[in-house]
Amino acid sequence: MARLGKKILSAFIDVGEDKKEDNEPAVSPKVERTVVAPAAQRSTGTPADPRFADYFDKLFSDANIPGPDYYEFVRMTGAMLAIADERSRYSAAFAGLQVQGLDKEKLLSTANEYLRVLTTDADHFQKTVEAALQEKVNSRSAEAEEKSRRIQALSQEILELQQQISAMQSEIAESKEKLTASSSGYTAECERRKQQIQYDIEKIKLYIQ
């Protein structure tokens, strides 16, 4: 029974079974549907999930002992739903099994035994859920937190790089402005000197014989 909780849980999420177990169905295929708790008798107001219903049908079927007991009693009451009166239905089911050797004491004791089966299975299932939470939730949460810290670190690095780029762009603009100013000054002075020389050439030709 140690794997019962894991089998039913694996019908909904991957709980890390090994390869052999992965090839097994999460819920063993049933040949005949055993309605252990007919909805008309014990309605909780919540529609039964067929996967869970099949699982518990199989669980009770596997736990059934030879001879008439609570399991057969419930099957019989389920088959008598056409009898509207609950007392009559219970009495008729008990009478049908009483001739096979079932008495009230055995009916109640085996009903309690199925309660113990449920309790044991629920314990296994809860442990499986806790293990799955540790594997699928807690560990993934830690991984998500680590990635979040990496994002924060990268965001800080990006911010610093952007600040460096901004400073470099300011330096580039300033250097470009200085170079442009220097180039303009050079060109203007060069042109002035050319004109001065041209002027002097003309005057030399004119004044010096």
Automatic annotation (TrEMBL):
Residues 137-178 form a coiled coil. It comes from the Bacteria. Keywords: Coiled coil. This is Uncharacterized protein.
